[in-house]
Structure formats: C-alpha cells, structure tokens
Write a structure and sequence with these properties.
The chain is of the alpha+beta class. It has helices spanning 2-33, 85-94, 122-142; strands at 37-49, 56-66, 69-73, 100-106, 109-114. Helix content is 43%, strand content 28%. The radius of gyration is 21 Å and the shape is elongated.
Length: 148
C-alpha cells in the first residue's frame, strides 16, 4: 500500500506541475494576443525546414514604426510552431516581401514583436494530460476504499 500512495503522490505532483505550466502558457499567450498593434512591411518571408524534427517553420523579417522610431522584427508567432509543407508554402505567400502585415508589440518594449497571433493548441493537450494524471493519482489513492 505504501508504494501505491507514493505513486499517487508523485503522479499528483507531476499532474499539477504539468497543468500549472500549461495554464501559465495560456495566460502568457492570451496577454500577448492583446498587445498593441501597428502596421508593418514585410522585408523577407520564407518557409524553411525545421532544425529539429520534421516540418517547416517561418523565417521572417519585417519593419514597423512606433512613435516615429523604426524597428525590425524577426519573430513570426507567439509560439514556435512547425507547419506542413503545404501550410508553410501558403504562409510564405501570405508573408512575402513587400506585403503589409499587422505587428503586435510589447507595450513596454517595442523591440519585442510578432506578426502571427495564431496559437498552438499544444498547451490544451498538455493541460488534459495533467488532468488525466491527477485523476489517475486520485484513483490510485482511493482504490483501497472503493467498493469491489
């Protein structure tokens, strides 16, 4: 019985940590989606093979002006994401050099910016895994008292 309780406690801690991380990311993403916006110009945009794993990522460079000062950004999205070849090719056309884009920038630091506010749903999946771990921990801990 001691190993079962220890296992339940460990699973519970891992589940809580996993859920905490996922909710932290969700809050951060939500906050960034509400950053101020300005218009910008694409200087370069291309789909490149991802360094790790499979898929493609967007490599971009864009310029924008805030309070009369020009900035350049290279961050594509809120989160680092990988795309299929087809998605990447469509994004490369959408973010080609010369196109106008909407740039979101940090209110306190205009050098921090991005141009794609689409979020990944990875954190929702991670939160679900954390919840499943918590339920498993509760089931393990309560098992001796459950009716047979």
């Amino acid at each position: 019985m001691g190993f079962r309780i220890l296992g339940a406690i460990l699973l519970g801690i891992i589940g809580l940590g996993t859920m905490g991380w996922a909710f932290y990311i969700m809050v951060r993403v939500n906050r960034m989606q509400h950053w101020p916006t300005t218009s910008g110009d694409m200087l370069a945009g291309e789909a490149v093979a991802a360094e790790s794993g499979s898929g493609f990522r967007m490599k971009v460079r864009y310029a924008y002006t805030i309070d009369g000062r020009r900035y350049e950004g290279t961050t594509f999205g809120i989160q680092d994401r990988s795309f299929s070849r087809r998605e990447a090719e469509q994004l490369a056309k959408r973010y080609a050099a010369g196109r106008m884009v909407i740039v979101r920038h940090a209110p306190d630091d205009p050098t921090r910016s991005f141009i794609d506010s689409t979020e990944s749903h990875l954190q929702m999946i991670v939160a679900g895994i954390g919840l499943a771990l918590l339920f498993t921990a509760a089931w393990l801990a309560a098992r001796p008292w459950l009716p047979r």
